[in-house]
Design brief:
The chain is mostly beta strands. It has one helix spanning 30-43, and strands spanning 55-71, 76-87, 92-107, 110-121, 133-148, 151-170, 173-194, 204-217, 226-240, 243-255, 261-277. The protein has an eleven-stranded mixed barrel with strand order 1-2-3-4-5-6-7-8-9-10-11.
Amino acid sequence: MIDRTTADMPGTLMYQPIATPARRRVRHSPARCVAALAMVAVLTLPSPATGQERVVREQLNGWINLRSDVQLSRRWFVEPELVLRMHGPVNKMAQAFPRVGVRFQPMPALMLNWGYAYVETWPYGKLPVALQFPEHRMWQQVQLSHAVGRVAISHRYRLEQRWLGRMALERGESRVQNWVRSNRMRYRLQAVVPLQGATLDDGEFYANVSEEPFLNWGANIRGNVFDQNRLGATLGRRVSKALRIEVGYLEQLLQKPDGRTLERNHTLVLNILSNFSLAGDSPTGSSAGAPRR
C-alpha cells in the first residue's frame, strides 16, 4: 500500500578560580536532523527470519495532491483535500482518498489538527494486495515551525488510528469480513527555501525538502513495526498569495506486513495548494509547503 550534541564539557578546574563556565549555544541543523531520522528508519527495519532474504521491488509511481486551506476565523481553518496515487506512473490507479481536517492555530508557529480520511486501495505493481480494500482513518497532529535564516523549518508530529477492511470473495464479489485496527505515528521534518531572495513573494520559486519516517504499533502489528520512510524534494512556485504549485520527486520505502518484502517507489509528485478566507480577510496562507500526506 502506498498509502517512514552535546555541549562542550568544561576543562579541569584545578588551580582555576571558581566561575561558571560560559554555555555555548548548540544549533541543530536540518541536515543533522534528517540524517538522524534516516538512521532511525534504517535501524527499525526488522531483520528477516533465518533463511529468508529480504525482497525489494523498484517501482515508478505518480502522486497528485489537491489541497486547500479555508480560513473560517482568525484561528480556525478547514483543510479539504483529494489525493490520487497511481502506478506506472499514471497507468493504473493505486490509491485514492478524500480527506478533511480541522486546524486550530493559536499562534503562527503552532498548529493543532484533527481529521478523517476514507482511503480506497487497489492491487498494483509488483507486490499487489489480493483484493481492493477500504480504510477509515482518523488523525491528530501538532506542527511547530521556526526559521533558520531564510529557511522555514517545520516539525510535524502525527498520530493515526486506522481501520482496514479485511476482504474475502463471496459469490464472486469481494466483501469486507471485518475491520483490522492499527495505529501509526509519523514525524516529518521539512525545510522550505526561497530561491529568489530572502522572502517568498508572488511569482517566485522555492525548494521544499522533507524527510518522514512512519512506525506502526498495536495488537495487529507483527512484522512491520517500521511502516515506511519518505524522502522528497519539490520545486515550487508561488503563483499568488492564494495559490502554489509544486512538482518533484519522492522516494518511498514501504515495508509489507510480512516484514520481509519492501517496495522502493520512485514517485513523481504534483501538488496544487490553494487557500482562501471566509472570515472577510485576505488569505493568511497555509502551512507553507505541507503537501504529501
